[in-house]
Every structure is written in C-alpha cells, then in structure tokens.
C-alpha cells in the first residue's frame, strides 16, 4: 500500500471523517480512511434531525458505516503520527513506520476528553471515576454519584444517570451553566439532582474504590466532603493536534484554524469536526464540515490535474 498514491487520505472516522468519506467515495476519489481506535459515541443525540426520540451516537456511526458499504474506499486502523509535504504530495506517517501518500488530506481528528487533574482522578479511574455514563451508569444502581461540569454533556449525562442512581450531585465551577436551556430546565426539575455551585473538586478519596470527594465552594472558600460511590467527569474536550504543531495554523488551545471551505493554512490539507477552532461542537456541523471538506478536496485534486 505504501507505494500507492491516494487521491485523498482522511484521518479520523467519527461523524466528520465518515461523512467526508461518504462524499469522497461517491465522487470516486481513491480514498483511504484512517482511524486509530474505537470510535466513541454520545449516549443520546436528541437534536440530530430526522430521528424523533433521538439516536445514540454509536448507532448513528454504525448507520453511516453501513451507508458507506455501498461505496469503494480503503480503511486502515492505524495511528497517524506525522504529516509532511513533499512538493504537492502529502505524506502521512503512521506509528507502525508506514508512510502513505496522497494528493490531499482531510483531518477529522476529533478531540479527547479533558481530565480534571485532581488527586485521586487517575488512581480511581475505572474504580468509581468515569467519563461515560452509558458504559458505567448501570454499575451505580441505587448509589449517590457526582457529575462534574456545566456543559451540555454534563447535564445530559446527569439526567441519564438518574435512571440508575439514587442521587446525582451536579458540581459546576460557575453559577451559570453553558448547557442549552432545555437541559438546564430538565436538571432543575429533576428531584434526583442536587446542584452544587460555584464549586470545584479538590480531591477524590477512597480505599479500593471511590468513597468520597472533597470540594470547595468558590464563593465562601469553604471545603466540604461528600460521600459518593462514583464521579462522572464531563468537562469538555481537548484537541489531539500536538503532532501538527508548527505545521498548521492553530488557536491558543490547539484547535486547527480553517476557513469556511474547511481549508487549513496549507493547500490540500483540510480539517473538519471537533478538531477545528469554532464555537459550537455539534454532530450536525461536524457532518456538514466533513461534506464541505470532501467537496473542496475534490475540487483541489481536480485543479492539480489541470
Ligand atoms: P463544554 O461545552 O466545553 O463544557 C465543558 C464544561 O466543563 C463547562 O461547563 C466548563 O466550565 C467545565 N470545565 C472545563 N474545564 C473545567 C475544569 N478544569 N474544572 C471544572 N470544570 C471545567 O463541553 P461538553 O459539555 O463536553 O460539550 C462539548 C461540545 O459538544 C459542546 O460544543 C456542546 O455543545 C456539544 N454537545 C452538544 C450536545 C447537545 O446539543 N445536546 C450534547 C453534548 C455535547 P465553564 O462553563 O465555566 O467554562
């Protein structure tokens, strides 16, 4: 495969990358899709048009994968560690040592979960500390748990967890939430959710597994302990773009800067989805950006051939 020249290499097979692949393969571009690991998925997406009652992230991904079965493209499960440009050819370097070549590249790298960075977080991950309510919620039947964060994910997952747990303490560092109003209303109306603001977690404690958390109220500076069996952390995402530093223009947080056509600062390199610098990270705009990136990549490739 290493001697082949692809028209397009897409890095990342989340909603943005898969949509880009759908458009590219329908345009008959010689396309390679790369993904380093299992693709995560949001528990329930209620605002993706066309799915009354919502659809899980996993199912949405499965459906796009199924849709892709009708088209031709290659897929490799490998990690990309470098991107180089040799004149107009893009060289995609894999952790296995392979180097793949393409006329254009789409980066749909997604973003990884942000960690709190408090004592006990790493130690108790998998033993009470979790980043996934759908995966771990059922283990906390009848228990009390804490959810950390004030965005859409934290509020949505807090509500979801009340299906299993006795009580959720929703702890957020500010008095106002950035989550959408409908979720804020649902949280406030839910008798199983107690909101603790403006507060931050200082430590997660336990012996074998999580037993309590120490949190501090940022207004009164008062420290308190709370007995919980689980701590669910949903404090946003960080891009995994360190390996591209100095090669592409990025914002101060490391998200890739693109224009409306999903063009990065380098010709023939496009980016889309959660790894790009933007205000709203929604699956619907990730998919839209994937489509735009693929259409512009196609145009770029055709112009090369002129
Ligand atoms: P987010 O919107 O970035 O929110 C992260 C939350 O964590 C914020 O409330 C933030 O507090 C807090 N936070 C960040 N760092 C923290 C720290 N070190 N300690 C304590 N708290 C910290 O992340 P998200 O909720 O995961 O959502 C990611 C994206 O997906 C967003 O664009 C969101 O709209 C989207 N999403 C949409 C839906 C939906 O539409 N239904 C569902 C899920 C996610 P501050 O507010 O003080 O900054």
UniProtKB/TrEMBL annotation:
N-terminal signal peptide: none
GO BP annotations, alphabetical order: removal of superoxide radicals
Record's cofactor remark: Binds 1 FAD per subunit.
EC number: 1.8.1.9
GO cellular component assignments: cytoplasm
Keywords: Disulfide bond, FAD, Flavoprotein, NADP, Oxidoreductase, Redox-active center
Listed name of the protein: Thioredoxin reductase
Presence of keyword Oxidoreductase: yes
Catalytic activity: [thioredoxin]-dithiol + NADP(+) = [thioredoxin]-disulfide + NADPH + H(+)
Subunit organization: Homodimer.
PROSITE patterns associated with the record: PYRIDINE_REDOX_2
Family: Belongs to the class-II pyridine nucleotide-disulfide oxidoreductase family.
One Gene Ontology MF term: thioredoxin-disulfide reductase (NADPH) activity
Pfam families in the cross-refs: Pyr_redox_2
Gene3D superfamilies: FAD/NAD(P)-binding domain (3.50.50.60)
InterPro entries from the UniProt entry: FAD/NAD-bd_sf, FAD/NAD-binding_dom, Ferredoxin-NADP_redctase_2, Pyr_nucl-diS_OxRdtase_2_AS, Thioredox_Rdtase
Cofactor(s) essential for the protein: FAD
Primary gene name: trxB
Segments forming domain FAD/NAD(P)-binding: 6-290
Organism expressing this protein natively: Caldimicrobium thiodismutans
